[in-house]
Write the structure tokens for this entry.
Amino acid sequence: MDFARRADGKVNVLDLTLTELRAWLADMGEPRFRAVQLWQWLWQYMARSFQDMTNLSRDFRKRLEECACIDWPQVDKVQVSSDGTTKFLLRLADNERIETVLIPATSKSGNVRWTQCLSTQVGCAMGCTFCSTGTMGFTRNMTHAEILSQILVARDYLHDTRPQWPVLRNLVFMGMGEPLLNYRNLERVLLSLNENGGLNFSPRRITVSTCGIRKGLQELGESGLAFLAISLHAPNQALRERLMPGAAKWHLDDLLDTLNSYPLKTRERITFEYLLLGGVNDSPEEARQLVRIVHSVRKSKINLIVYNSTPGSPYKAPSEERVLAFEKILWDAGITAVIRKSKGRDIDAACGQLKASALQEEAAAAAAPTVSA
Ligand code: SAH
Ligand code: SF4
């Protein structure tokens, strides 16, 4: 079988789904049950070397070492916000950098549970004008190994090693990139998450957020492998074209039609994400247009997000008054809108912001005159 290999010819075993791992091991002449053993070591016990896999024969471990590797990304930076939100800047094998964010929530019994926000691409081609990632442009898709190893880094950081009592509870694909434009890898990742004996995330603990990509939406719906969130951000086509030029190439009316026939799980509702930008999309008229949209799509709900301002951005956060007035119009129309508390504001926790500030620091350092002793 042909898998992506490192320059030294080794296969990163984290890049294979369980089915692919079975086929790869079968090619090596290994019995079938070896795949599940290896899978468990990689994803449940988070082994970083084949030598640690003590229930595998010495001979098999040696063979693995000769032709394969376990490559985790390097952690370049960890920032912890005053509200506990923790953001990682990760360096991939080709030196590209991506971000992932952990968001804490305290349960009724006082235990802290975490949600992780995952990236799927280095940059993004959709060019949303308010989004740090969008303004960076697109570099490349992330691999199965790169997407999932964000979770390994987080579990390692949280010492989350008891599969029966996971502290990392939910995953949201809301980091850098447009997941549905990397659908092949996204689907392999969702299948891997769903395997027993590994990371064990059922589709009910996973949400994929998209700006709306026709083909990917159909495929995700058919797979049933995650809940769906739609980044709407504008209640009419004209404004959407201004804010989200890439996404708006697919007309809003067509997106809404597709959502009406989207296959939903029991009790599932589609979440619309609406980022409130001061003076841009936060007027009472826009709230009323949003009401019409939510009413037109069966089984949907809305999350309002207050814009987290980025340096150099033309947008600003709306006043609290405007946010409450906007929310009231939705409530009065019988729509349960939730204002999503903006977490980690002090560490630039919105999509792409940490990478953007790291790039700025580096540019400033490069521009500064060198002082020689
Ligand atoms: N591409 C997908 C998944 C990434 S989501 C999508 O657009 O749905 C990234 C999320 O972060 C989006 O909901 C976007 O609206 C939000 N976001 C981007 N920049 C932000 C900012 N400055 N403040 C708050 N949210 C932001
Ligand atoms: Fe891409 Fe989503 Fe950012 Fe838009 S909001 S540029 S689709 S990552």
The first helix runs from residue 18 to 27. The first strand starts at residue 11 and ends at 12.
